[in-house]
Amino acid sequence: MRKALLAFHVLWITACSHVSGPNLRLNELEYFETQGVNVLVYSNQFTGGFNDEKNSGIELIHHGVRTAQGGAIRLSNTPEQWDLVPTTTSRKVNAEDNLIEVGLRYEDYDFDSRVVVTGKGKAVEISVYLDKPLPHELEGDAGLNLEFLPSQYWGKAYLMDGHPDRFPRYAVSNTVCRPNAEKVKQFKGYKTYDDRGTGQFVEPLPLSSGHTMILAPDTPERMVKITSAPCLYLYDGRMLAQNGWFVVRSILPAGKTGKVLTWTVEPNTVEGWIRKPNIGFSQVGYLPSQPKEAVIELDKNDKVIPQASIWQVKADGTEAEVFKGKTAVWGPYYKYNYIKFDFSEVQEPGIYYIQYGNEKTNNFTISPNVYDHITDATTDVWIPIHMNHMTVNEGYRVWHGEPFKEGYLQAPPHTDHFDMHWQGATTDTRYKALELIPGLNVGGYFDAGDFDIETGANINVVQNLVRTWELFKPLRDETFVSEQQRYVDLHRPDSIPDIIQYIEHGVLNLLAQAENIGHMSQTLSNSVLDNYHHLGDAASITDGLHYAPRLAPYEKSADGKSSGTPDDMWAFTSRNPRMDFRAATMFAAASRALKGYNDDLSERTLKQSKRLLKEATELMSEESQKDKRQNVGDDMATNLQLYASTGEKQYLDTSRKESGWHWNTTPTATS
Description:
Elements lengths: L1 H16 L7 E2 L5 E3 L2 E5 L16 E5 L2 E10 L12 E8 L4 E8 L4 E10 L2 E8 L12 E6 L1 H4 L3 E4 L2 E4 L8 E5 L20 E5 L3 E8 L8 E13 L9 E6 L6 E10 L10 E3 L12 E7 L7 E7 L5 E15 L2 E7 L7 E7 L2 E2 L3 E3 L9 H10 L5 E4 L2 E4 L7 E3 L4 E2 L5 E2 L12 E2 L15 E2 H18 L6 E4 L4 E4 L7 H19 L6 E3 L3 H4 L13 E2 L14 E2 L5 E4 L4 H18 L4 H22 L4 H6 L1 H15 L2 H11 L12
Parallel strand pairs: 27-35, 29-39, 37-38
Antiparallel strand pairs: 1-2, 2-3, 3-4, 4-5, 5-10, 6-7, 7-8, 8-9, 9-18, 10-17, 11-12, 11-15, 13-14, 15-16, 16-17, 16-18, 19-20, 20-23, 21-22, 21-24, 22-23, 24-25, 24-26, 27-28, 29-32, 30-31, 33-36, 34-35, 36-39
Helix pairs in contact: 4-5, 4-7, 5-7, 5-8, 7-8, 7-10, 8-10, 10-11
């Protein structure tokens, strides 16, 4: 007990002793500022798309790090990625009174509020105003939130009404389950969770509650004091989503108007704090003869040092200054100042680093072959781990198993998708809603950060790989790829240039779309939001079984081939002739690269290129002449690629006619 009291007194005395620094005032960029602290008030607004900006609303940049954000009226204790966000209806800056007023609205609930942030000494006062009482359905749910970055606070202490505790490194707080009927609406009516038939959603309980909270009194650079007459609650947003933050929250009162809630937020300032210079340079290195210029980013309160130097690391481990040069002022940009340092004179091959004042960069090399291996990590790891419908192995690690063995279902008409896609009034195919479209679970590449296949992006990938092959013929072979085994093994040569296999893999899915759908899809994507945000092995996103509506939810058929779990991926098939043109262009180019390696695939891609060109041209002719002229580039590109692949003069003539140009030379495959 005595040790606990001693710890409490130490934290309290530490917290009180750190309070220092000048007042927070609005600057010319319309945010509150003092040395070491910036408070932004809707300088960045919620966009309402994926609702996961993590740099919106009221934000705190604390001694150079964005430690808090999301200050807004929110409708849940720990907002998730697809929870509703308020629309900003107005933003008024009053420099004379040192305040910013922001109007917020939730259209779904006809709910308006105003948030007024006023600089008061070393703190900001955040007040919430309601012109009408809180809608009944939001009572107990709407509140003022401010989110704090976990990596800056876990392991650090906090005080709630004087009671000490620590921010947990892992999400371990308590939760309760509530009926789905009580869940506030999420984006477009989707749900981020699978209730597994319970009819309930999970709600985190607070870690602590009180009226005065001091965050990180043991760390001056991160210490923040928040006081409020209404109760403050501390939540761990990671309980529901791994990208959640620590959330401080107060509930808006029911039946009240006017000023209904006020916080005072006082970030601690370390007297005389200046952000360390940030030196930007080529981490890849430099060729001996190329220009070499570093860009140095400085705190606006920092003084420019007139010189910087280059140090060389010798073979015996000693270091020697080999160049000292002047720095040149570039000027201010937003909240920082910038200078440049030119060291082009340094040309001797070797290992170096930059010294500016007390700051020293990581090493870099100067060498004639500095770019020789620059793409190896991309071709040996980045590209193959994104290969869909394959098991991808690397040594003792399996990056992912074979995903989506059950294939893809036809997306139902009038589907407004959470990933910004849309299935129109019809399917534009011969398949009925939720009917299996055969043959699509082959080849293709994951979207960046997701596990869907974005058709347009995959077309670009294949087109770029073909162009790279035709320009440079890279023969690097460090990846075993077997489409028959649906297996990829990194760092295992198989006597075939990797890039050819990557082209083949991309073509396989795109060709399957053309042959089985009849045209190009928009995307092959998740049907439910609760597996779209999946962070694990792609093979576990779905159960690998065909969805059978006749089965009860989560029931598996006796033969083990189907289930009642509606987790199958969907194909969004609304036809877009512009996408068909792009695919036709890519198919024509890919046919050349595949010829001699996979002749059957080469011939099929060429066939689909010609068909899609013909059909897309007919579809485009139904549009206005203006629209057609805007997209003549796609038409021309397809004809040129087909001419390069077939040598048939009709494609060259069509390109000349469509463009209105008169060429003196014949275009080549890489023109």
